[in-house]
Amino acid sequence: MADKTYQIAESDVTQMHEKIHRHRRRIVGGVMLAAAILFAGLAGWYLYLQGRTYTKYDVRASAAREDTEGAQFVTFCGNVIRYGKDGAVYMDKSSRVIWNQTYEMQNPVIDTCEGYAAISEMQGDRIYIMDTSGPCGEIKTTMPIQRVKVANQGMVAILMEQDGAGRIQLYGKEGDFLAEGELHTGNSGYPLDIAISNDGKKMAVSLLDVKGGSVKNSITFFNFDSVGQNEIDNIVGQYSYADMVFPKVEFLTNNVMAAFGNAAAVIFEGAQKPKVKAEIALDTEVRSIFYNEAYVGFVFDAGNGKNPYRMQVCDLRGKAVMKTDFGVDYREIEFLENDEVCVLGEKECAIYTLRGVEKFHAEFSRDIRKVLFAGGVRDYIFLMEKETQEVRLK
Predict the structure, then answer these.
(1) What is the C-alpha to C-alpha distance for residues 32 and 71, in angstroms, rounded to an integer?
(2) What are the Cα distances from residue 331, in Å, to 36, 69, 343?
(3) pLDDT tens digits, one per residue of 121-169
């Protein structure tokens, strides 16, 4: 029997490959369409959640808390420090105590930077340096304390003033003395505030000079790194402003510093020698300021009976990203960890997104002391009077 030979035409091979490619394209196209629909659905759901206002919430967990009279709260490394006249307590979000520092202060204030906190008394002489594990060091000053700032490795800068003489001292995290400098108010002006960079290598001082009926405020920058060692007194920049007062200066990031004045806020930037990055004109008297590493915020009188306050948030280029009026008779306003703005009254809370949407607004039957973002779009921690609540907005 003769052998049979089978041949496949080239056209058949081409058609087969085209069918395979069409099939693959249909599969890929179907997957991409499904992914696009899913993404659009998730984006729509997210925008819906971000655009609505919640007035209620579910308490998902709670823990009792024993607060002393007049206690204040500050967020620290994702948890909370409660401090008052007789001591400070570092607690997690379930109110479990991590450390406890006792002291006696009539007017305690606290400054934090990443993993360190410095607790001091205005016009006092004692400073306690803490990290997330507990006490690190203690400082006793020889002059009344005006301002205390801490850096991310525990370095502490102290501004002191007595009988017209100002002095700045630097200490390590264990309370060891590092350096000091004098401020002669007759020559340089009266010190209003100091700021220290996160890495502790840069410092800014706001000095007010009043002579002959005229007012001038200077912002002086010091650099304690190699660049500043080549400059007189480590001064790497100085900016003067006539007829203005800057009572508050603050490093927002390691290389960005903001000076908050009565007529303007100035943003400086520079790794070594700061330069002016933006100026924000403040045409109306500022009631409050708040800030984080990306934005600066201001509260003004709005002249509106129902919503008497106006909030404005600007980015670090000086551009306004949000303006809105609100009516909460607030005692505190601040950014949460997700860049939302929390406005707290005694028994009232409002949370705003950077789009100006009032995301949450509620009145309570008891005091609300602090709000923390808990990671989810609707998840927060409410520090109510004597109770910590994990909540979800609904």
Answers:
(1) 55
(2) 45, 17, 8
(3) 999 999 999 999 999 999 999 999 999 999 999 999 999 988 777 899 9
**pTM of this structure:** 0.85
Handedness of CA 223, 226, 227, 232 (dihedral sign): positive
How many angstroms from the chain centroid is the CA of residue 383?
19
For residue 243, give both structure tokens: 């007829």
The answer to whether 126 touches 135, Cβ cutoff 8 Å, is no
State mean pLDDT over 108-131.
Answer: 97
Spatial distance between the Cα atoms of 367 and 326, rounded to a whole number of angstroms: 20
Residue 51 — pLDDT band, cuts 50, 70, 90? low
CA distance readout (Å), 239 to 151, 264, 319: 24, 14, 22
Q: How far apart are CA 299 and CA 364, in angstroms?
A: 23
Residue 177's Cβ-side half-sphere holds a number of Cα atoms within 13 Å equal to 8
> Looking at 165-169, 346-350, 352-356, which range is the least confident one?
165-169
Q: Which residues contact 40 (CB under 8 A, 6 or more apart)?
A: none
Q: What is the pLDDT of residues 299-330, one digit of tens each?
A: 999 988 899 999 999 999 999 999 999 999 99
Q: Which residues contact 185 (CB under 8 A, 6 or more apart)?
A: 164, 165, 166, 191
Average pLDDT, the chain: 90
**Nearest residue to 81 (alpha-carbon basis) of 138, 128, 126, 147:** 128
**Cβ neighbours of residue 43 closer than 8 Å, sequence gap 6 or more:** none
Q: Are 98 and 91 in contact (CB under 8 A)?
A: yes
Measure the CA–CA gap between 94 and 368, rounded to whole angstroms: 16
**Residue 112, token pair as written in the block:** 């934090």
